Fold each of these.
Amino acid sequence: MATARMGKATLENIMKTCIVTGCDIKYLPGVKALYNSIKQNGNTDVDIILLAHGEIEDFADLPNDIRIIYNEETHVSPSGGEWKEQIPAMYSRVLIPRILTEYDRALWLDADTIVLKDLTPLLEIDLQGCTCAASLPAYMDRSLNTLHYQLEEPHLYPEHRDLKALQAGVMLFDIAKWNEAGLNERVDQLLEDNVKFKFVVQGLLGMAVGGDFLELPYEWNTYGNWVNAVGLQNINILHFVGGIAESPWSHKHMLHQHIWEQYK
């Protein structure tokens, strides 16, 4: 699938873009590795921002060129699926369009991702009028790529049965379009209504946009168990998805662990 790009001169003259991730102290090793991979492979000098959750001293040894914003949280960060406790750091990405209005675009990268190639094609992608871009959640079983599967109680929302779901680990936001579309208010309402999602913030964002997002090729968000199918040589961003139990800095035996180890 080809990635449409804006003209480079146009982007440089008009767009102000940043890369954003988020973590608490448990995911700090992931942020360090992600930062190193961006610097080595991303071919970009856009601002890198961390939405940090914890004490200032927890993040004292991060590189000085990471802009840190502390403890910006949604009013509630509901648990769901295997996440039995609220995790504010996971939900912080939904605040990007509200708190980073000085930017035109923001690329969210989960702290358990590693950038393997030039990010320019993604940062410059033509969003075709959409508020955001993301890949679908499932590669092996495409039947899982609907909001119906993301919901814990899908029978309550039959109108969402066939809407496509998104994978929220790599998301490009058009901040002005998101805000103009009233999606912050939509997110707030879903949180207020306590809609239950199997994959927490991922389902929340998918339901908020209602299937209306630019679909990214899987090369921009490849799970470890998809590597053989996608082809390592084709992968731009590798995502070490392990749920709440596994991470490459704590589990040590994840698929393609050796790749993450190069950047820690």
Amino acid sequence: MSAVAPTSTTTAAGPDPDARPQRVIRLEQVTKIFYAEDVETHALSEADLEIHAGEYVAVAGPSGCGKSTLLSILGLLDTPTGGRYWLNGQAVEALSFKERARARNRAIGFIFQSFNLIGDLSVAENVELPLTYRGLRPAERKPLVQAALERVDMAHREKHLPGQLSGGQQQRVAVARAVVGSPAILLCDEPTGNLDSKNGAAVMDLLRDLHEGGATICMVTHDPRYADRAKRTIHLFDGRVVDGGHDPSTERTAHRQALPQGC
């Protein structure tokens, strides 16, 4: 069974009942509760969310509002306590552990605040890693790695180790690693958090270029300057999506399609 087929909307647990061909992510009433002794912490409460192919979405809100928890669930790094999650039309709860790992590798690209590069691997080897896990042969991996590094203007550093690079350069390599496998969506967790303003702006320019090239991006940020660069902002407060959970343009389209002729 394929873990996540980009155009499939049918699963063992049934199809997404409201699937649209271009929807990449859909959450319905998703809740996440952390239990510690006698204390329950509601990190997410009945969150509804949609992200469509080609969107550039920012997730904003105060510290502790659930942004990182949401991104972990979207990235299949954590599981919700309740609710439903569809990735490319596939019901995530229908996936086995192995299929979830495969979906993470093939459908999702991660860009972390702390870069998460492996220090004793070269730039090219770090970028190559997701393709290695995917089982591609070296001859197949090499041109994809080269193209990804050229895309972020780091091909000239392919033999360097991460410790020989600046913070901005390391984040560029992390972006190349995220896009090398052509994922359905890029999930960015505070991608400028460890960078100075100049390098932060450069990484944001790179994300803009990727979006203009067709990438789908969901970015968590605490910086309103960078949130404003996204085309839509999802606001979280106390674990709830309080604004921006749905793309208003798709809602208007769906409303027009539902109207009788002549309206």
Amino acid sequence: MTSIDMEFPQVPQLSRADEIQARRALRHNRLLATGLLALMIVIAIATRFVPSPGWLVHLVRAGAEAGIIGGLADWFAITVLFRYPFGIPLPHTAILPSNKDRIGRSLGSFVERNFLVPEVILPSHGKNSRLASITRDGADGFGLDNYTTETFARRQS
């Protein structure tokens, strides 16, 4: 078994009570965000009907309009990352589900090139640490190609 075929620990699952609490918190935050967006809309409409608006009314209206635009932009940005808005398959939407494998490979490659290099690992862990020896001894410079789970376990003891 190579390091690539290693079995990873199981992802911890939430208990039923924790999942219910997390869903409750999510529902609360969604209601709060929707309520604040509705409040901004009400404020923007209400300030349009002020008979002789002064600078303060214009300031409040501008803030409300900015809140509306920002709220809608944030909602749309998050929505298009994960799904199609309103179920309509628009171009450049549902980005993460359709590209998750490519994003994962790119992220893994980025971490390998920028963080798993001897220049980064050795100064922070010392030259005699186990991590440093794995980094030095590996054929690819990262210490991962020639290591099996058993070899790594022997080095740990």
Amino acid sequence: MKNNLFFENVPMDFTLKKMPDVAGVAVDSSDNIYYTTRICPGFGTPVIVLDKNGKYLRGFGTGIVKNAHGLCIDNDDNIFVVDSMRNCVFKFSTEGELISAIGEPDRSNDNGCVNYDYRTIEFSSDNFNHPSKIDVTDQGDLYVADGYGNARVHHYSGNGERVRSWGEPGNGPGEFNVVHGIGVDRYNNDVYVCDRENERVQIFDADGNLKTIWNDIWRPTDICIRGDFAYVAELGELLYIDNVLYEPGTRFHHSQCRVFDKNTGKELAIIGTSDSGAAGSFWTAHGVCLNSDGELFVSEVSIPGDDLRVAYPEGKGMSCKFHPGLQKFRLIP
């Protein structure tokens, strides 16, 4: 394995030129690109499908999904979409027909959480409370990060039956402060959990037993495991989204995507610079996936223009450069 990997940004001629809020991204067996969006000018649908070259194919989920967040696609090309507002995971066919749902729509648990503030969570619950991301094993089992109003990882069978749940609020081993992203290693079904506000990735076996912890991950939002590598999208600490643990202006890690050796946690690559508006960099990296050619897709939410507060080091201003909310990268041989 190389000690250092290098990636290049690959421009795509997207049919949709404005992509300001791309919460999640996944690919199917034909390398078609599916992404979830909460702001989609001209279309208004929560799930958008593009071909591998970025051409618009279709959209779906309107009238069903209120707040599309994460998504994943199983080996049969079923699409699972997490609706953080309706507290559900919706299962769709490739053509966008609703098949089933996990969770009771529009019902949340009563665990003390107030207004999405994870610091008000009194205890974890086995019912959804503003879940965020999802991933699937080769066998069809689903793992859901239930993190805005809960502090739980849920494991479901392929038919939607809950197998187990684990996690409590806090910063100790196995505890969570915003369970945001989740990725499954298809080789051994280890579960990699983005513990966002604790700024770490916790790794569990398939039964929820803690194996190890990677620290100093800057507000991780999503993770994808492929081969020997773990690809982590990091929100960074410059854009203040949701409730945060630190004071504005005190920490300055920019948003980026990092690649790690999945076995050792060694950092192998950094994608993105502090010039957040430049192509190949990020304002708010939020979703990550790879296609069959090993090309990496990174999505972003809250591209500037949404009246975000920006806390840059003194003397630096907001970049005036912009790029699409979905970018593609290729490993340089």
